[in-house]
Structures are given as structure tokens and as C-alpha cells.
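Try it yourself: sequence plus magnesium ion, in.
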Amino acid sequence: MTPKPLTSAENKTTVLTRITDMTVRLGGRVVLDRISLTLHAGQITTIVGPNGSGKSTLLRSLIGAVTPEKGRIEHAPGLRVGYVPQRLHIDPTLPLTVERFLSLPTRVPASVARAALNEAGAGDLTNRQMSALSGGQFQRVLLARALLCKPHILILDEATQGLDQPGSAAFYRRIEEVRARLGCAVVMVSHELHVVMAASDRVICLNGHVCCEGAPEQVAQAAEYRALFGTGTQGALALYRHEHSHSHDHAPGCDHGHAEQGTPHDSA
Ligand SMILES: Nc1ncnc2c1ncn2[C@@H]1O[C@H](COP(=O)(O)OP(=O)(O)OP(=O)(O)O)[C@@H](O)[C@H]1O
Ligand SMILES: [Mg+2]
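Structure, out:
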């Protein structure tokens, strides 16, 4: 399962992907300017930044959908990447079951589809029509689709867009469980700063270039981050920040902002 790392794992961190000095130009404009970034196995990295700051472009360059004008992207040999896109439109008039959707464009064995759906908390949706799913169910199916390849890196682009607060908190909790079980790295983009920063090992603040990066607490203190987002997330961070080695059932304050909502609840 583990791909061959780019560097030896002497310090226990396996490097999965390394981006060096990458510049991306789209429509004649530099969208990402000299980005360098390293992804380690098992780490949750969150990318934050204003609209149009290049977050989706950075994720798309990680999956090879965007070609850099300059710089390098190196992946560990044998690396598998799962991707949940920011937008996916399915014609509502198209009859398409969840099971069939997971077999597009490449047919997957029913057992593999079932395992991915269970992993994503969507095991009961196999025979449902894609057009009849709620927002939260749809996102879980997209997550299942990204898990089909048993990814070493799971990439999520605003995966909780359109979900209500308990729904998105439940989704992030599931991502953390998936990461713990599969040991995959997670790279996600979100505008829900207080929730995702708390769930992250590392935050990258992007605005065409890397403004600042580091542990959530460090980034929340950085002048560059405050200039973009103000200081509002700092208090929230103190409330929500926790270690990943906890048990969700018993550890207080580990609910990713869900605690004040009462009983655990998944969006449906
Ligand atoms: N195919 C394209 N051709 C030309 N310009 C593009 C293309 N795709 C994106 N851009 C531009 O690149 C910039 C970065 O876009 P990107 O989608 O990466 O931003 P983002 O940070 O993900 O924004 P959002 O928060 O709105 O999702 C934007 O100015 C956008 O208009
Ligand atoms: Mg985007």
C-alpha cells in the first residue's frame, strides 16, 4: 500500500509529493507564482485563501489536470490520489444509480464499490438515484468515489459546500476517521476556517503565492493571514484545536464545532 517515498523515512515522515517553485499560468495570467510545498503521509493539510486565489488550481495541478509553466511536481512512485472536485454537475434527468456512478468511467467490482461506500458512510445508498440524493449524501458518494483507488493522498476541494454546519462537521469527522484508518494524507480546501483549521496538521494560506504556512496556531497569528481573514478565527481555534489521537466518543471538545449541536448527527 505505501508508495516508495521520495526521501528516506528516517524522521518518520514519508514524503509523498513535492512541488518545487511551481508557476501556473491560465488564460495568459499567472495564477500560481513559485509555489513550493511538500506533502507527508498521514498529514492533513488545509489550503485557505480568498476566491480566485488559486486553491482549486493548486489541487488540479496535484492531480495532473493542470500543467505548470515552470517548476516541478514529483510524486512518490506508485502514488494513488483520490479527488473530490469543487463542482460536479450531473444532469438531474439522467437515470443513474450510485452503484453505476461509481463504475464510471471505469467499471469497478461491486465488492470494491461497496467497501468504498461503507468507508464513506454511504453504504445504504448503493441503489439510490444520484439525482435523488441530499447534499450530504451526494458528498459522501463523491468521497466514496475518491476512495475507490485506496488513495495515498485524498484531495477535497470545498467538499462541504452547501452542507449545513452539523452536516459539514460530520463530514470532516468522517474524513479524519478515513485518514486514521487508511493512513492517507489529506489535502483540502475550505472556507470554513474555524472548523478546518482545527482539524488540520498544517495550514497553507494562499493568494496566488504562499502567504504563510505552518501549524494552525502559527498561521492564525501570521500578519499575512490576519490581513486576509482578520483575527476572528483565533478564538475559535482555541476552542476547537485538538490532537488527532483522541477518541471521538469520549473526548470533550473534539467534535469539530459540533458539540453545541447536541447529539451527533450526519447530514442525510
Ligand atoms: N481554465 C482557466 N482559464 C483561465 N483562467 C482560469 C482558469 N481556471 C481558473 N482560472 C483563473 O485562475 C484564478 C484562480 O482560480 P481558482 O479556481 O484556482 O481559484 P480558487 O482559489 O479555487 O477560487 P474559489 O474560492 O472561488 O473556488 C482565477 O482568477 C480564475 O479566474
Ligand atoms: Mg476553488
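One thing you can check immediately is this: The first strand starts at residue 15 and ends at 26.
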